[in-house]
Write a structure and sequence with these properties.
By secondary structure, the chain is mainly alpha-helical. Helix content is 56%, strand content 4%. Helix 1 (3-19) runs antiparallel to helix 4.
């Protein structure tokens, strides 16, 4: 699967999961630091950052304009619009190649998009688990992210971007193994 198709599918999965999210958005998620609203806000922030970054703006150019609560009074509509805008920007800019400016320096645009694919997929699962939705991930996306993440896991873990692998988690299938690698317990319940 190509990076552009993987990105599109991961964002579509995320957007559909947000669209179906109901109930109390202060409920916990598998990301112990975030409740449902904070988790959605995080990914909406990623989506809002995508357009300026792939259009070659720097972090300094964007400044603090995307800090804080980005969801407003209609988080479903905000998340949908952010996902749509991010997809359009990636579809336009990814074929051109080049670099994006990230917190750790310049990065190849395709590598940045791979990071976003994993964020949408894993946080989509987090949201599905927290809101009682179907937790089954697209097996092609699971395989794509797992192949990319094998070489990234240690860097992510040592930087604190992902939690330790849970000792009590049971793996044995590709989805569970990927979730465990990202510090999730596949059997997590609120």
């Amino acid at each position: 699967m190509e990076v552009d198709a993987s990105y599109r599918r991961s964002v579509e999965f995320w957007a559909a999961t947000v669209s179906a999210a109901t109930g109390d958005w202060s409920q916990p998620t598998p990301c112990s630091d975030w409740d449902v609203r904070q988790l959605v806000n995080h990914v909406v922030g990623e989506d809002l950052w995508t357009k300026p970054l792939v259009e070659r703006q720097t972090i300094a150019d964007v400044g603090d304009s995307l800090d804080g609560d980005l969801l407003g009074d209609d988080p479903h509509a905000t998340a949908s619009a952010a996902a749509r805008d991010a997809q359009a920007a990636v579809a336009d800019q990814l074929p051109r190649g080049g670099k994006v400016n990230l917190s750790y320096g310049d990065e190849d645009i395709a590598e940045y998009i791979r990071q976003l694919i994993s964020d949408h997929l894993i946080h989509g699962w987090d949201l599905a688990a927290a809101t009682g939705q179907n937790r089954t991930l697209d097996p092609d996306l699971v395989a794509y992210v797992a192949a990319w993440y094998r070489d990234q896991e240690e860097a992510y873990r040592s930087s604190g971007a992902v939690a330790a692998r849970p000792d009590s988690a049971r793996g044995g299938d590709p989805q569970s193994d990927l979730l465990i690698a990202f510090g999730r317990d596949p059997d997590w319940r609120a």
